[in-house]
Amino acid sequence: MLFSRSKSVVGLDIGSSAVKLVELREKKGEFQLVNLGLEPLSPEAIVDGSIMDSSLVVDAIHKLNDEHKVKNAAYATSLSGHSVIIKKIQLPAMSPDELAESIQWEAEQYIPFDINDVRLDYVVLSENDPGQEQMEVLLVAVKRDKVNDYQSVISQTGKTPSIVDVDVFAIQNAYEANYDLDPLKVVALINMGAGVTNINILARGHTVFWRDISTGGNQFTEALQREFNLSFEQAEMLKRGEQVGRYTSADARPVLDTVSEELASEIQKTFDFFSATSSEAPVEELVLSGGCALTPNLQQILRDRFGIPNELLNPFRRIHYRESDFDRDWLQAVAPRLAVAVGLAIRKVGD
Ligand SMILES: Nc1ncnc2c1ncn2[C@@H]1O[C@H](COP(=O)(O)OP(=O)(O)OP(=O)(O)O)[C@@H](O)[C@H]1O
Ligand SMILES: [Mg+2]
Question: Cα–Cα distances in Å, from 61 out to 2, 11, 21, 150, 152?
Answer without folding.
Answer: 21, 12, 9, 11, 12
